[in-house]
Amino acid sequence: MSRIVTVAAAQLGAIQKDDSRQAVVRRMIDLMDEAKRQGADLVVYPELALTTFFPRWYHEDRAEADHWFEREMPNAATGSLFARAREHGMAMSFGFAEITPEGRHFNTSILVERDGTITGRYRKVHLPGHDEHDPERTHQHLEKRYFEPGDLGFPAWRMLGGVVGMCICNDRRWPETWRVLGLQGVELVVLGFNTPSVNSQKGAEGLEKRMFHHKLSLQAGAYQNSTWVVAVAKAGTEDGHHLMGGTCIVSPDGEIVAEIAHEDDGIVVHPCDLDATIFGKETIFDFKRHRRIEHYGPITAQAGVITPK
Ligand code: CDT
Protein backbone atom coordinates (compact mmCIF):
# COMPACT_ATOMS: atom_id res chain seq x y z
CA MET A 1 0.00 0.00 0.00
CA SER A 2 1.33 3.41 -0.95
CA ARG A 3 2.22 5.70 1.90
CA ILE A 4 2.27 8.96 0.00
CA VAL A 5 1.10 11.93 2.03
CA THR A 6 0.60 15.01 -0.12
CA VAL A 7 1.55 17.98 2.02
CA ALA A 8 0.82 21.66 1.44
CA ALA A 9 3.15 24.08 3.18
CA ALA A 10 0.92 27.14 3.59
CA GLN A 11 2.99 30.25 4.13
CA LEU A 12 1.36 33.37 5.55
CA GLY A 13 2.54 36.82 4.59
CA ALA A 14 2.69 39.54 7.20
CA ILE A 15 -0.04 39.92 9.81
CA GLN A 16 -0.29 43.43 11.23
CA LYS A 17 -1.02 44.23 14.87
CA ASP A 18 -4.54 45.39 14.05
CA ASP A 19 -5.49 42.46 11.81
CA SER A 20 -8.27 40.41 13.38
CA ARG A 21 -8.03 36.67 13.85
CA GLN A 22 -11.13 36.34 11.65
CA ALA A 23 -9.31 38.09 8.79
CA VAL A 24 -6.30 35.81 9.18
CA VAL A 25 -8.51 32.71 9.29
CA ARG A 26 -10.12 33.81 6.00
CA ARG A 27 -6.63 33.91 4.46
CA MET A 28 -5.87 30.47 5.91
CA ILE A 29 -9.08 29.08 4.41
CA ASP A 30 -8.14 30.46 0.98
CA LEU A 31 -4.82 28.66 1.23
CA MET A 32 -6.57 25.48 2.37
CA ASP A 33 -8.95 25.62 -0.61
CA GLU A 34 -5.97 25.93 -2.94
CA ALA A 35 -4.26 23.03 -1.13
CA LYS A 36 -7.40 20.96 -1.73
CA ARG A 37 -7.38 21.83 -5.45
CA GLN A 38 -3.79 20.58 -5.55
CA GLY A 39 -4.68 17.30 -3.84
CA ALA A 40 -3.22 17.86 -0.37
CA ASP A 41 -3.91 15.46 2.51
CA LEU A 42 -2.33 17.77 5.06
CA VAL A 43 -1.93 21.55 5.21
CA VAL A 44 0.70 23.09 7.49
CA TYR A 45 0.63 26.73 8.63
CA PRO A 46 3.23 28.78 10.54
CA GLU A 47 4.05 29.33 14.20
CA LEU A 48 1.66 31.79 15.94
CA ALA A 49 -0.40 31.73 12.76
CA LEU A 50 -3.39 33.67 14.04
CA THR A 51 -1.72 36.93 15.02
CA THR A 52 1.25 39.16 14.42
CA PHE A 53 4.50 37.97 16.03
CA PHE A 54 3.59 39.77 19.27
CA PRO A 55 6.70 38.83 21.34
CA ARG A 56 8.43 41.74 19.61
CA TRP A 57 6.34 44.09 21.77
CA TYR A 58 7.30 44.76 25.39
CA HIS A 59 4.58 45.11 28.02
CA GLU A 60 5.64 46.03 31.53
CA ASP A 61 2.57 44.17 32.76
CA ARG A 62 2.80 40.84 30.95
CA ALA A 63 -0.94 40.24 31.33
CA GLU A 64 -1.44 43.01 28.78
CA ALA A 65 -0.28 40.47 26.20
CA ASP A 66 -2.97 37.95 27.16
CA HIS A 67 -5.27 39.12 24.40
CA TRP A 68 -2.91 37.46 21.90
CA PHE A 69 -3.58 34.05 23.50
CA GLU A 70 -6.30 31.46 22.80
CA ARG A 71 -8.19 30.02 25.77
CA GLU A 72 -9.69 27.15 23.79
CA MET A 73 -9.19 25.48 20.44
CA PRO A 74 -11.20 25.47 18.26
CA ASN A 75 -12.82 28.75 19.25
CA ALA A 76 -15.05 31.41 17.75
CA ALA A 77 -12.30 32.67 15.43
CA THR A 78 -11.03 29.29 14.21
CA GLY A 79 -14.29 27.30 14.05
CA SER A 80 -14.66 28.03 10.33
CA LEU A 81 -11.11 26.77 9.66
CA PHE A 82 -11.84 23.48 11.42
CA ALA A 83 -15.17 23.20 9.57
CA ARG A 84 -13.53 23.76 6.17
CA ALA A 85 -10.79 21.21 6.92
CA ARG A 86 -13.47 18.64 7.85
CA GLU A 87 -15.39 19.45 4.68
CA HIS A 88 -12.24 18.86 2.62
CA GLY A 89 -11.28 15.79 4.66
CA MET A 90 -7.90 17.45 5.13
CA ALA A 91 -5.60 17.16 8.11
CA MET A 92 -3.91 20.35 9.31
CA SER A 93 -1.35 21.81 11.68
CA PHE A 94 -0.97 25.38 12.90
CA GLY A 95 0.58 27.32 15.74
CA PHE A 96 -1.01 29.67 18.27
CA ALA A 97 -0.40 31.20 21.67
CA GLU A 98 -2.13 29.02 24.26
CA ILE A 99 -3.30 30.01 27.72
CA THR A 100 -4.43 27.03 29.79
CA PRO A 101 -7.35 27.03 32.25
CA GLU A 102 -4.69 27.30 35.01
CA GLY A 103 -3.31 30.45 33.37
CA ARG A 104 -0.13 28.92 31.95
CA HIS A 105 1.22 30.37 28.71
CA PHE A 106 2.71 28.32 25.90
CA ASN A 107 3.78 28.71 22.28
CA THR A 108 1.80 25.77 20.92
CA SER A 109 1.07 23.90 17.73
CA ILE A 110 -1.49 21.21 17.03
CA LEU A 111 -2.06 18.34 14.63
CA VAL A 112 -5.66 17.97 13.53
CA GLU A 113 -6.99 14.81 11.88
CA ARG A 114 -9.11 14.82 8.72
CA ASP A 115 -12.25 14.57 10.89
CA GLY A 116 -11.35 17.63 12.94
CA THR A 117 -10.07 15.76 16.01
CA ILE A 118 -7.00 17.31 17.64
CA THR A 119 -4.59 14.38 17.76
CA GLY A 120 -1.39 16.11 18.73
CA ARG A 121 -0.37 19.08 20.82
CA TYR A 122 3.19 20.36 21.12
CA ARG A 123 4.43 23.23 23.29
CA LYS A 124 7.66 24.92 22.19
CA VAL A 125 10.59 23.77 24.30
CA HIS A 126 13.47 25.97 23.09
CA LEU A 127 12.23 29.52 23.67
CA PRO A 128 14.62 32.06 22.14
CA GLY A 129 15.21 35.65 23.16
CA HIS A 130 15.01 37.31 26.57
CA ASP A 131 12.52 38.17 29.29
CA GLU A 132 13.23 41.84 30.01
CA HIS A 133 13.33 44.83 27.68
CA ASP A 134 16.82 44.97 26.18
CA PRO A 135 17.76 48.42 24.86
CA GLU A 136 20.94 47.02 23.30
CA ARG A 137 18.95 45.08 20.72
CA THR A 138 17.68 46.54 17.45
CA HIS A 139 14.38 44.76 18.13
CA GLN A 140 12.92 42.82 21.03
CA HIS A 141 12.33 39.06 21.05
CA LEU A 142 10.44 38.46 24.29
CA GLU A 143 9.37 34.85 24.01
CA LYS A 144 10.96 34.12 27.39
CA ARG A 145 8.73 36.82 28.90
CA TYR A 146 5.43 35.69 27.50
CA PHE A 147 5.78 31.88 27.37
CA GLU A 148 7.03 29.16 29.65
CA PRO A 149 9.02 26.28 28.14
CA GLY A 150 6.86 23.47 26.83
CA ASP A 151 5.99 20.71 29.29
CA LEU A 152 5.09 17.94 26.84
CA GLY A 153 8.51 16.95 25.49
CA PHE A 154 8.71 16.10 21.80
CA PRO A 155 5.97 13.54 21.22
CA ALA A 156 5.16 11.88 17.90
CA TRP A 157 1.83 10.51 16.75
CA ARG A 158 0.50 7.88 14.36
CA MET A 159 -1.34 9.85 11.72
CA LEU A 160 -2.02 9.67 7.97
CA GLY A 161 -0.51 6.19 7.83
CA GLY A 162 2.82 7.29 9.29
CA VAL A 163 4.57 8.71 12.33
CA VAL A 164 4.33 12.50 12.57
CA GLY A 165 6.04 14.92 14.94
CA MET A 166 6.12 18.67 15.49
CA CYS A 167 8.53 21.29 16.68
CA ILE A 168 8.41 25.07 16.48
CA CYS A 169 10.82 27.59 14.96
CA ASN A 170 13.92 27.87 17.17
CA ASP A 171 13.55 24.16 18.07
CA ARG A 172 14.78 23.39 14.55
CA ARG A 173 18.23 24.71 15.41
CA TRP A 174 18.73 22.08 18.12
CA PRO A 175 19.86 18.55 17.21
CA GLU A 176 18.31 17.30 20.46
CA THR A 177 14.86 18.13 19.05
CA TRP A 178 15.42 16.04 15.95
CA ARG A 179 16.98 13.08 17.69
CA VAL A 180 14.23 12.76 20.28
CA LEU A 181 11.73 12.76 17.41
CA GLY A 182 13.96 10.42 15.40
CA LEU A 183 14.05 7.95 18.28
CA GLN A 184 10.28 7.61 17.90
CA GLY A 185 10.69 6.66 14.24
CA VAL A 186 9.32 9.94 12.98
CA GLU A 187 8.69 10.04 9.23
CA LEU A 188 7.31 13.56 8.87
CA VAL A 189 8.11 16.58 11.03
CA VAL A 190 6.03 19.72 10.60
CA LEU A 191 7.08 23.08 11.96
CA GLY A 192 6.24 26.74 11.65
CA PHE A 193 8.55 29.68 12.15
CA ASN A 194 8.76 33.48 12.50
CA THR A 195 12.37 34.41 11.88
CA PRO A 196 13.44 38.06 11.81
CA SER A 197 15.70 38.61 8.81
CA VAL A 198 18.33 40.43 10.89
CA ASN A 199 20.04 39.30 14.08
CA SER A 200 19.01 41.86 16.74
CA GLN A 201 22.44 41.56 18.38
CA LYS A 202 24.59 41.43 15.23
CA GLY A 203 23.38 43.68 12.44
CA ALA A 204 25.87 42.21 9.98
CA GLU A 205 24.01 38.91 10.15
CA GLY A 206 21.28 39.52 7.62
CA LEU A 207 18.84 37.63 5.47
CA GLU A 208 21.34 35.56 3.51
CA LYS A 209 23.10 34.14 6.57
CA ARG A 210 19.80 33.63 8.45
CA MET A 211 18.40 31.69 5.49
CA PHE A 212 21.56 29.59 5.36
CA HIS A 213 21.28 28.66 9.06
CA HIS A 214 17.58 27.90 8.64
CA LYS A 215 18.08 25.52 5.73
CA LEU A 216 21.22 24.00 7.26
CA SER A 217 19.23 23.10 10.39
CA LEU A 218 16.30 21.60 8.51
CA GLN A 219 18.43 19.66 6.08
CA ALA A 220 20.65 18.23 8.82
CA GLY A 221 17.62 17.27 10.93
CA ALA A 222 15.92 15.57 8.00
CA TYR A 223 19.02 13.67 6.83
CA GLN A 224 20.32 12.59 10.24
CA ASN A 225 16.94 11.17 11.21
CA SER A 226 15.81 10.11 7.74
CA THR A 227 12.54 12.03 7.88
CA TRP A 228 10.52 14.40 5.74
CA VAL A 229 10.43 17.96 7.07
CA VAL A 230 7.86 20.60 6.24
CA ALA A 231 8.86 24.08 7.46
CA VAL A 232 6.46 26.96 7.04
CA ALA A 233 7.22 30.66 7.43
CA LYS A 234 5.29 33.68 8.45
CA ALA A 235 7.02 36.19 6.22
CA GLY A 236 7.10 39.82 5.18
CA THR A 237 7.03 43.09 7.07
CA GLU A 238 4.86 43.16 10.19
CA ASP A 239 4.42 46.64 11.62
CA GLY A 240 7.83 47.64 10.29
CA HIS A 241 9.64 44.43 11.29
CA HIS A 242 10.80 42.10 8.56
CA LEU A 243 10.42 38.32 8.84
CA MET A 244 12.25 36.17 6.32
CA GLY A 245 10.43 33.57 4.21
CA GLY A 246 12.06 30.25 3.41
CA THR A 247 9.07 27.90 3.48
CA CYS A 248 10.31 24.56 2.23
CA ILE A 249 9.88 20.80 2.17
CA VAL A 250 12.97 18.65 2.77
CA SER A 251 13.32 14.99 1.83
CA PRO A 252 14.74 12.26 4.11
CA ASP A 253 17.95 12.62 2.08
CA GLY A 254 18.24 16.19 3.33
CA GLU A 255 17.40 17.75 -0.03
CA ILE A 256 15.02 20.66 -0.47
CA VAL A 257 12.38 19.34 -2.88
CA ALA A 258 9.96 22.27 -2.85
CA GLU A 259 10.10 25.85 -1.64
CA ILE A 260 8.42 29.25 -1.77
CA ALA A 261 10.55 32.13 -3.01
CA HIS A 262 8.23 35.05 -2.10
CA GLU A 263 7.03 36.55 1.20
CA ASP A 264 3.26 36.58 0.66
CA ASP A 265 0.47 34.11 1.35
CA GLY A 266 1.03 31.03 -0.80
CA ILE A 267 1.40 27.28 -0.85
CA VAL A 268 3.82 24.73 -2.14
CA VAL A 269 2.68 21.11 -2.40
CA HIS A 270 4.72 17.93 -2.47
CA PRO A 271 3.84 14.22 -2.40
CA CYS A 272 5.91 12.89 0.52
CA ASP A 273 6.49 9.15 0.20
CA LEU A 274 6.86 7.98 3.78
CA ASP A 275 8.52 4.78 2.55
CA ALA A 276 11.40 6.94 1.34
CA THR A 277 12.40 7.24 5.01
CA ILE A 278 13.03 3.50 5.35
CA PHE A 279 16.39 3.23 3.60
CA GLY A 280 18.16 5.75 5.84
CA LYS A 281 16.54 4.34 8.97
CA GLU A 282 17.70 0.82 8.10
CA THR A 283 21.25 1.69 7.02
CA ILE A 284 23.45 4.59 8.09
CA PHE A 285 20.93 5.86 10.66
CA ASP A 286 19.83 2.51 12.04
CA PHE A 287 19.95 3.86 15.58
CA LYS A 288 19.71 0.52 17.34
CA ARG A 289 22.78 -0.82 15.58
CA HIS A 290 24.96 2.26 15.51
CA ARG A 291 24.18 4.61 18.39
CA ARG A 292 26.67 4.51 21.30
CA ILE A 293 24.55 5.76 24.16
CA GLU A 294 27.27 5.01 26.73
CA HIS A 295 29.01 8.16 25.42
CA TYR A 296 26.03 10.50 25.26
CA GLY A 297 25.49 11.12 29.00
CA PRO A 298 26.53 14.81 28.99
CA ILE A 299 23.70 15.62 26.60
CA THR A 300 21.13 15.13 29.35
CA ALA A 301 23.39 15.58 32.40
CA GLN A 302 24.41 19.19 31.73
CA ALA A 303 22.99 22.20 29.90
CA GLY A 304 26.05 24.44 29.61
CA VAL A 305 29.63 23.84 28.54
CA ILE A 306 32.21 22.38 30.95
CA THR A 307 35.65 22.90 29.43
CA PRO A 308 38.54 20.48 30.13
CA LYS A 309 40.77 21.38 33.13
N1 CDT B 1 10.17 32.43 16.64
C1 CDT B 1 11.43 32.02 16.80
O1 CDT B 1 11.71 31.06 17.50
N2 CDT B 1 12.37 32.76 16.19
C2 CDT B 1 13.77 32.49 16.34
C3 CDT B 1 14.53 33.74 16.31
C4 CDT B 1 15.81 33.58 16.94
S1 CDT B 1 16.56 35.09 17.33
C5 CDT B 1 16.01 35.44 18.91
C6 CDT B 1 14.31 31.52 15.30
O2 CDT B 1 14.97 30.56 15.70
O3 CDT B 1 14.13 31.73 14.12
TrEMBL record:
Q: Which UniProt keywords apply?
A: Hydrolase
Q: Where are the transmembrane segments?
A: none
Which PROSITE patterns would you find in this protein's record?
CN_HYDROLASE
Where is the CN hydrolase domain positioned along the sequence?
A: 5-276
Molecular function (Gene Ontology), one example? hydrolase activity, acting on carbon-nitrogen (but not peptide) bonds, in linear amides
Highest taxon listed in the record's lineage? Bacteria
PANTHER family on file:
NITRILASE C965.09-RELATED
Q: What is this protein called?
A: N-carbamoyl-D-amino-acid hydrolase
What organism, scientifically named, is this protein from? Salinarimonas soli
